Every structure is written in C-alpha cells, then in structure tokens.
Input
Amino acid sequence: MFWKRKTKSAPPVRSGHAIPEGQRVYAIGDIHGRDDLFARIIDTIRADNASRAPATITLILLGDLVDRGPDSDRVVERAMRLKDEFPDTRLLIGNHEECFLAALTGDVRRLRYFMRIGGDATVRSYWRGDDCFDSATFEEVAERLPHMVPAEHVDFLGRGEDVIEIGDYAFVHAGIRPGVPLDRQKPTDLRWIRDEFLDDLGDHGKMIVHGHSITREPDEQANRIGVDIGAFRSGALAAIGLEGHRRWFIFAREEEACADAA
Ligand SMILES: [Mn+2]
Output
C-alpha cells in the first residue's frame, strides 16, 4: 500500500554499495516480448561499454523475457546468442518464464493460466501451424505448443537462475522476502513477491536490483532498485550499469512518430 511507504520512517541503510574492482555489470529489466527494444538496448550497452575503461563484463537479464509483447520467440533467440558477444551473460527466471515452462508440460490448466497473464502473445509468436492458434482449443494448444517451441529455448529458460550476487548487490526478478537470508529465499518469493518487498524499508544487507513491478522511471530506493518500466506498454526499456561505487541508467525507446505524419 502506498501510504505505508510514506509514513514509515526509514531505518538507516548502509550506503556505498560496490561492485568488485575490474568488473562492470549491466542488468536489463523486463523485456516482455519487445525484441525491438531489446536489440536497441544491447546497441546502447555496447556503446556505453566501449566508452568506458576495459573491464570484465557481466550482463544480467532480470527475467520476464516472454509474454505480453509481440516477439517472445525472437527475444529468447537473441538472449541465447548474447553469450557470443558477452560471455558472462546470465538469466534470471521470472514468473512469466515459470508459467511458460509449466504450460509446455501439456497441462491444460497451467496453459489456461499462462494465457491469462499474457502468454497468448507468446503462443502466437511460436505458433507454426497453418491454422491460427485462436481457432484451436486449449486442449489442442496444450498438445501442439510443446512441439513448436525449440528444445534449446526450453533448456535455456529452464537454466535461469533465481539469485545472482555480485559484490554488494543481489539481482533477483521480483524481490526478496524481508528478514530471510538470501540463501534461504523461496523461488516463489524471488519470482512473484510485490508489496511485502516493495513496502519494506529495512536494510537487506545487499542492495537488491529487481524487475517485475512497473514504475514510470527506474525506482531507486535506499535498499532496492527497480528497473521494470513496462516496456511492453510504455515502449521504453531500462537497464542499470554498475561499476565500483557508481551506477547509471540506460534506456531504449521506440521510434518517435514522424512529426509530419500528422
Ligand atoms: Mn514478473
């Protein structure tokens, strides 16, 4: 709830979080099928990286690559290929990947749930039938979809991590349950939690970088930094860059409409 965040007085939070020397980290927020913005932010990160001193790069995808936006299949393909350019590319598994993988087991009930939270766009992007998937029943989609999603996509998403710790930072998809040590967190919390994490003002030990909860601009708090700015509907995708004690944000935005088009 909003008022909680404003009326609680913030306990002191350790400042000066750092990434180990010689390393630079980029973490990209929820892409949700926007391959156009994904391609663009990689270009921007490449340029940003080239403009700085040489360092060992870690590129983190904060999860929710799929659903809602139009090109989930291409986003997964691009994410898999990132290792060629950024060998230390790491994927966090989001709640949408969890539901996608569950829908691929052939379970109709889990497919229905997946379709309800934006998975219909993912199914459309992978559908390879002559017929439109809209005309198929849930039972038919549940049976045919697993044959249309490449096995290497399933393997790639299935190998997604739940927590990545680097220096004084911890990267997760949704957040952590306050008061529980990082190594005791439940995957359900790491992938799904919202208010109990967002409203908590306590020091988590590590600075938590997360996606999952949409804000207009990156949500920089004393104990956490949210970088999901709702790419699928805002047309803007955010990433955070971290090096030493410094941090900065990087954005990709869709093309402005031509002024003379009106
Ligand atoms: Mn999410």
